Amino acid sequence: MKPLSKKQLAVLGQLSTKAYRHLVSVGYPLEAYDTWRHELTAEHCNGISSWRSLNQLHFVPLCNALRAILGLPPREDHTPRTRKEALIETIRDRAHHWELNTGYISAITSKRFGVIIRQGQSLESALIRLNEEELRQLIYTLEARGRAKTAKISRQFNLPIPAEIHKSASTMPPPRLAAWRGDRLA
Question: According to the lineage, what is the superkingdom (predicted)?
C-alpha cells in the first residue's frame, strides 16, 4: 500500500494542530503537542506512531479521529480494500488521465471480454464482473490507446510526442510490454 502523500500529511498536520488547540482551549490537561500527536496516531493506526510510516489505509481513520475532536462529521472512506478494487480504481484514474470516456471503455470491455454494458448501467458494474487478470489487460489496453491518442494529436499539431519516463523499476510494465512500448528508466 502506498505511503501518505504530501497533501495528506498537510491535511493531518492542519487537523491535528486545530484539534490540539481545541483541547487546550477547553482545559483538557495535555502533554506536549508532539507527544499527544504520536499517542493519538498510535491509538488509531495499529500502534504506528509516525506519520511517515503510515499508508493509505490509515489516513481516513486518523483523519476521522481528529475531525471527531473538532466536532466535524466523519469523512467517507473510499480506499480500495482488495486488489480488484485497486485495479478498478487504477482503470478509473487512467481513463481520466488519458481522457477516455465511459462509452469507449465499455466498447473495449464488451469486445475483448464479452461483458455487455447496457445503457444506464455504470462502468463499475461491468468491471466488477472481470477477474484480476482481465482488469490488468484492460489497464494495458487503455494505456496503449491513450498513448496512441496522444501521439496522434501530437502529430496532427506538429508537436513532439511526450515521452513517459518511469521513475523506478517497480513502475515498469512487464519486460515484453516495456520493450514493445519503448519504455526506459529515468
Answer: Bacteria
Check residue 47 and report its DSSP letter. Answer: T
Q: How far is CA 180 from CA 18, 84, 167, 185, in A?
A: 52, 26, 19, 14
| Per-residue pLDDT tens over the stretch 69-102 | 999 998 887 776 788 888 898 898 888 888 888 8
Phi, psi of 185 (to 5 degrees): -80, 150
pLDDT single digits (tens) 100-132: 888 888 889 989 998 877 777 788 888 888 999
CA 132 distance to own-chain centroid: 17
102-113 and 83-98 helices, crossing angle to 10°: 130
Phi, psi of 81, deg, nearest 5? -100, -25
